[in-house]
Amino acid sequence: MSESLANDHIAAMAPYAVANLSVREGLPLISLAQNESLRPPSPRAIAAGQQALKTGALYPDPDYPELRAAIAAQHGVDEELILCGAGSMELITCITQAFAGPGRRVLSSQYGYALFSNSAEKVMAPYDAAEEENLTVSVDRLLEAVTPETALLFVANPGNPTGTRLPNAELVRLRAELPEHVILIVDEAYGEFADGDDARLIPLVEQGRTIILRTFSKAYGLAAARAGWGLFPPELGSEVRKLIIPSSISSVSAAMAQAAMEDQKYMRETCDLTVQLLNEFCRRVSSNGLRCTDSRTNFVLNEFSSVEDAQSADQALREVGIVMRGMGGYGLPHCLRATVADAPIMQLAAATLEAWAKGDLT
Ligand SMILES: Cc1ncc(COP(=O)(O)O)c(C=O)c1O
C-alpha cells in the first residue's frame, strides 16, 4: 500500500467507528444501534420538507433566520445566541477547531461521547478523560482533571453511551468552580427526554464561557435531516460561525426542523412513549439478571456479567435480526447499548434476552 499523503496526525487516526449492522442472512435488519427515534418525523415536518423541495434551486440562507426564530420562541432565548449546524456533530467539530489544538487540551469524562475525542484528534489537541462514578459523570473528578492547558470541557448530559444524567444544579456548580479559561460545553442531544429540571442553564450562556448544544436527531426524529443547534455566548459564537460550512443544513432539512420545533405536542408524545417503552424493557430484562443503567434518553446501556455473556447475547439477538451497539470502543465490552424502538421490537428484544438468559438459546 502506498504511504498516506495526509497530514501525519490524520494518517494516524482511525476512521470514526460506526456500528456493525450485520445480522443472519435473509433477515431484515432491526437496528437498535444508533439512538434513532422510534417514530417518524412529525407529519407537519414532513409536509414542510415537501414544500421546501420547490425551492431546491436556491441556496439556503446560511443564518437560518426562520429556524432560529422558531427555536428562540420555543426556548425563550434571544435568537442572537443561536447557531445551527449540520447536526450537533458539525457544531462539536467546529467548536474544537476554534478553541482547541496543540497545547489547548480537551477534557471530557471516562465514557464521554466518542466524537469529543475524535474532534480533538483532528486538531491535534491532547484529550483527557476524568473518571466517572457508577457510570455517571462526576463533577469533582472533572474539576480535579482540569489543568492550566485545558481549553474545552465537554459534558454530555444525559451521557451517551451511559444514558445517566446529572441534575442541572451540578452543572451550575461545575461552571462556578471551573477556572475562567475553560469553555464548558453541555451537550444535551437527549435533553428533551429529561426536560423538567428546574435549574436553568441558559443564564450560564448569558454569563459567557458556556455553550449548550441540542439536536433534532433524537426526540424530534430527524436524524436523517442533519440539523442541530446551540446557544453560544456571542464572543464564542462569532468564532464558531466562521468554521461552519456555509448553508450546511439543506433547505429541506431546515424547513423540517422548524416545523418539528413548532410541533412540540408530537415531540412530547414521542418522549413519553419512549420513556414508557424503556421502562417496560428494563423491568423485563432486569428480572433476568441484566443490569440497566438509569437512562434518561432514548436508549439504555445493558450491563452483562462478563464480556463473553455480552458477546453471546449479541449473537443471539443478531440471530433474530436485532443489532444492539457493542461498547468495546468505550471500554465497556461487557455492555450492549439498546435504542428504544416500537413496542413489538422491544418485546422481541426482551423475549430474546429472556430466552438467552435461561439458556434456551445457544
Ligand atoms: C451525546 C451526543 N451528542 C451529539 C450527537 C450527534 O448528534 P447529531 O445527529 O445532531 O449530529 C449524538 C448522536 O448520537 C450524541 O449521542
Helix and strand arrangement:
Elements: H1 8-11, E1 30-32, H2 43-52, H3 65-75, E2 82-85, H4 87-99, E3 105-109, H5 114-122, E4 127-130, H6 139-145, E5 150-156, H7 168-177, E6 183-187, H8 202-207, E7 210-215, E8 228-231, H9 234-241, H10 251-262, H11 264-286, E9 291-292, E10 299-303, H12 307-319, E11 322-326, E12 335-339, H13 343-357
Describe this structure in words.
The structure is a single chain. Helix 3 (65-75) packs parallel to helix 10 and helix 6 packs parallel to helix 7. Strands 2-8-7-6-5-3-4 form a seven-stranded mixed β-sheet, sandwiched between helices. Strands 1-11-12-10-9 form a five-stranded mixed β-sheet, covered by helices on one side. The protein has two domains: 20-40 and 265-357, Aspartate Aminotransferase, domain 1; 43-262, Type I PLP-dependent aspartate aminotransferase-like (Major domain) (Aspartate Aminotransferase, domain 2). Strand 5 (150-156), helix 7 (168-177) and strand 6 form a beta-alpha-beta unit. It is of the alpha/beta class and 362 residues long. The protein contains 13 helices and twelve strands. Bound molecules: pyridoxal-5'-phosphate (PLP). Residues 35, 87-89, 113, 156, 160, 187, 189, 215, 217, 223, 228 line the site of pyridoxal-5'-phosphate (PLP).
Structural features:
362 residues; alpha/beta; Aspartate Aminotransferase, domain 1; Aspartate Aminotransferase, domain 2; 2 domains; seven-stranded mixed β-sheet; five-stranded mixed β-sheet; binds pyridoxal-5'-phosphate
